[in-house]
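Long-time lurker, finally posting.

We've been working with Glutamine--fructose-6-phosphate aminotransferase [isomerizing] (Vineibacter terrae) and I want a structural starting point before designing mutants. I don't trust myself to interpret raw outputs, so I'm hoping someone here can both generate the structure tokens and explain anything notable. Sequence follows.
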Amino acid sequence: GKGNHRHFMLKEIHEQPAVIGDTLHTYLSPATRSVTLPALPFDWAKVTRLTITACGTAYFAGMMAKYWFEKLARLPVEVEVASELRYREPPLPEGGVCIAISQSGETVDTLAALRYAKTQHQTILSVVNVPESAIARESHAVLPTIAGPEIGVASTKAFTTQLMVLLTMAVAAGRARRTLCSADEERLTRAMIEVPSQVNEVLNMDLAYKNIAEGILAKARDVLYLGRGLSFPIALEGALKLKEISYIHAEGYAGGEMKHGPIALIDEAVPVVVVAPADAIFDKIASNFEQVRARGGKLVLLSDEAGNDRLAHHAAAAAKLPTVDPMVAPILYSVSVQLLAYYTAVAKGTDVDQPRNLAKSVTVE
Ligand code: M6R
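Top reply, 14 upvotes:
Generated this for you. Predicted structure of Glutamine--fructose-6-phosphate aminotransferase [isomerizing]:
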């Protein structure tokens, strides 16, 4: 049941500290502070290329993983939505690994993309939340998310646990490929161990998100989400979450793309949610923030203390998140965009757990 929560989605959002912790404990030994994945049927050091495929929110987890694998393991990565990959039938290189990401493990396009990758002799690794699912059964190896059943159509805890599994994988790959030194690995694992309690801190700011949702987002017809670098996939995920449950038109953009089109949309009526931890690319997203402000856009800032100090006074509203290692920040910012979408949908009175036209698992094309 929903316990004392009004919707499954809210319950599942609040389960995240626990299930991220469970997922972490499966892949990371707190005693040795090191990632310990189950034995895999390939050697990371010999992988020529990773091809990641998924749909919807799981696809955004794949985009996130691309940044992590490239940075930590210096591994070439392609990410593609499964419905495109399966019909484009691209050549996949010898020695390649294909990662299929799926909460349900039953998504028909993802399964078909996996089968195509098999014809290209890729080793198939899947990240699923249902270990007995079709995608899991057809994979060479499975790294399950330990999220427990997800009932709400909008994916929340499945997404953040996917992120956790993918990050531990990128760390393991970085170690095997000798691109990640032990000091960095230790710093990262320490940062990962802190995530469940930091997600709790985000959840404790609940009211701030509710106020932004009711005061700004629920009144809008269109909302833009901007992010750069590691925050770009979170901007996309934030926009998807908002549109699917509140029916407000929302788009996620890479901040650098603003000038190439979307800035034409900006006026007082279009709120712009800026996902911007004070990381290495902060100055660049701060300049996108200024561009929007100069055109009268209504800015919602999601940032940490340093970012708030820099920009909050120019925002219509701001939420403050814990200051964390940039590599784990996307997990915390995911929770922020989930809360914004949830409270906006509640304010609009839509059916949060079962939005119109959507199915929990898409088993037909
Ligand atoms: O079960 P899957 O992870 O394969 O599902 C993929 C998408 O259908 C799913 O993430 C969808 O986009 C969600 N409704 C997003 O909240």
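Before you design anything, note these points.
The first strand starts at residue 28 and ends at 29.
The chain has 13 helices and twelve strands.
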